[in-house]
Amino acid sequence: MKELPILFTTEMIEKIIEGKKTQTRRVIKPQPDSIDKMSLHKVNNGDLFYVRESWRPFSWDYDEVISIQFKDQSFIDVEVPFEWDTYQIQNMLESWEAEMHSKGAISDPEDEERLIFNDGQEFRWRPGIHLPKAWSRLWLKVTKVRFERLNNISEEDAKAEGVHLEVDSSCYNGMYRDEFSLLWNRINGDRFPWKSNPWVLVYDFEIDLERSKIDIPVQGREEMTEN
Asked: Which of 63, 95, 142, 214 is the most exposed place for a label (fewest CB within 10 A)?
């Protein structure tokens, strides 16, 4: 069983937690000339994805307990990864303190050794690629892997990708696919637009509740059970 990183936007993470997204498509790189030259994929049923997402430090103490914030306004307390050495830890904390000083941080009146932001300042957001594995709050277990052309996505699969419609789709065949194509272009349109119809790997997944550090809404748990 492998443990691999995967990036998701905050919007998609919210859909996953709500139980509305159970599938994702990732462009195969490099693109094969034909299906006959398709190499074996590196992800198999039962493998795990640890999700990387935008984050920022919120607070910490010098017992190495850190509180980090995500863009959906969730917070989790984490510990410094055990494999980090003293230099890595010190370098990280010093860089955070330097950012606070650059934004006019002041000493906490109740603890002069502790810095606090003034006038509503906050830490900048860090890209998900820099989120340590040990700080991932969401782990996904792969339940199925296949490959296909992007444009071959079905209505059912487009819905499993987290697409939401405000109208009754039963009267409008193809609306989930149309909405998914817009979502795809919003995220991947610069390099692999919908009309280029690239080969993609399709991953079905479920939340690994034992490893994840999230609260699943009741509706999300019900939808996971149904799936």
From this structure: 63
